[in-house]
């Protein structure tokens, strides 16, 4: 019998049905895995010799994901086409070696749910195990220890992973405030969580390390924040003592000009944050200039900030907005203050 066919049969003996997340965690699952990942021990237990495994690797039928863990090459290629596909494969391989009870969490869970992260996702896989399990990881794997009630765990790609709400709270507890907020805003904006769901998990974790900061993140998070830069800008406004703006507001005079990132209605001031893609071509840039003119004609002060302004020069942001407040608060012919 050809080796490739034998290996397909061997993998079939490992199972082929997806189970719910709680079954995956308990280890009571059939061993179906993403890209048909299997450890050397599992392949040996199914009747494959080390020499046969090495032959399948040389032929390109199998590919090594991490030491001692292999996947079908064609399936691995397909998974790598996903967004964050390499990290997803590494996660599946790590879970295969760590054993039952481990759950993808923190940055890894955020990557799996396609939530925004402030920093480039780390290459290490982040997992959580319940108290009492061995926390020692392997190369490229970081393991946290915390309670994992069933309603904090879901399944993605056949793997147990913390829910979006639990993922947000884990990152809000363990990262700096603005990094936690970026992920929280992303989850709310994409409608993967609600404030009520975040509050429920926050209440459960209220006595855990970092719980106070997590509560602040949840309270400040806003589904109307549409990008990483908008989330960071809101933190700068808060830290500078500026009043909170309205987000994603349609503004104009007799006719609506457009939707703006931030509006301080009392001060007739609009702030826009300009990401790299906002002016991807000259046509868009010209349209923005025309829109700014229309807003100013309607009596608004308009200020723009770049990524560098927000992340490196908050003092400039503070001064520019307060100057705009001063100008916007001055009476003008034909306009009543507070209109």
Structure description:
The strands form four sheets. A four-stranded mixed β-sheet has the order 9-10-11-12. A three-stranded antiparallel β-sheet has the order 1-3-2. Strands 4-5-6 form a three-stranded mixed β-sheet. Helix 8 runs antiparallel to helix 9 and helix 9 packs across helix 12. It is built from 15 helices and twelve strands. It folds into two domains: about 160 residues, no CATH class; about 100 residues, Endonuclease, Chain A, CATH 3.40.960.10. The protein has about 350 residues and is an alpha+beta fold. The N terminus and C terminus are likely disordered. The radius of gyration is 26 Å and the shape is elongated.
The counted number of beta strands is 12
Q: What separation lies between the terminal Cα atoms?
A: 83 Å
In the sheet with the most strands, the strands line up as: 9-10-11-12
Return the structural class: alpha+beta
Profile the largest sheet.
4 strands, mixed
The parts where pLDDT drops under 50 for at least 5 residues are 1-20, 23-31, 334-339
Query: How many individual domains?
Result: 2
Instruction: Calculate the mean pLDDT score and round it.
Output: 86
Portion of residues in beta strands equals: 15-25%
Please write the string of helix (H) and strand (E) elements. HHEHHEEHHEHEEEEHHHHHEEEHEHH
Radius of gyration: 26 Å
Taken from the alpha-carbon principal axes, the silhouette is elongated
Helical percentage: 40-55%
- Individual helix count: 15
């Amino acid at each position: 019998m050809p080796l490739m066919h034998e290996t397909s049969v061997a993998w079939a003996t490992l199972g082929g049905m997806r189970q719910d997340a709680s079954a995956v965690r308990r280890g009571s699952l059939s061993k179906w895995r993403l890209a048909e990942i299997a450890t050397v021990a599992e392949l040996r237990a199914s009747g494959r010799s080390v020499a046969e495994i090495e032959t399948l690797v040389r032929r390109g039928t199998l590919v090594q994901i991490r030491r001692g863990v292999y996947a079908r090459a064609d399936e691995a290629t397909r998974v790598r086409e996903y967004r964050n596909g390499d990290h997803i494969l590494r996660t599946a391989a790590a879970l295969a070696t760590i054993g039952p009870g481990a759950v993808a969490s923190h940055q890894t869970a955020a990557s799996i749910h396609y939530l925004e992260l402030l920093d480039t996702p780390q290459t290490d896989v982040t997992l959580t195990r319940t108290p009492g399990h061995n926390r020692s990881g392997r190369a490229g794997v970081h393991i946290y220890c915390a309670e994992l009630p069933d309603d904090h765990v879901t399944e993605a790609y056949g793997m147990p992973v913390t829910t979006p709400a639990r993922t947000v709270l884990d990152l809000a507890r363990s990262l700096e405030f603005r990094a936690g907020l970026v992920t929280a805003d992303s989850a709310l904006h994409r409608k993967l969580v609600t404030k009520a769901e975040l509050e429920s998990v926050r209440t459960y974790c209220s006595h855990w390390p970092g719980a106070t900061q997590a509560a602040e993140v949840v309270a400040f998070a806003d589904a109307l924040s549409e990008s990483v830069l908008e989330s960071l800008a809101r933190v700068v406004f808060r830290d500078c003592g500026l009043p909170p703006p309205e987000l994603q507001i349609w503004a104009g005079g007799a006719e609506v000009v457009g939707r703006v990132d931030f509006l301080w209605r009392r001060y007739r001031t609009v702030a826009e944050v300009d990401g790299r893609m906002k002016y991807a071509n000259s046509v868009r840039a010209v349209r923005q200039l025309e829109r700014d003119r229309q807003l100013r004609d309607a009596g608004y002060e308009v200020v723009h900030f770049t990524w560098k302004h927000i992340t490196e020069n908050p003092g400039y942001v503070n001064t520019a907005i307060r100057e705009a407040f001063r100008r916007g608060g001055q009476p003008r012919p034909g306009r009543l203050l507070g209109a």
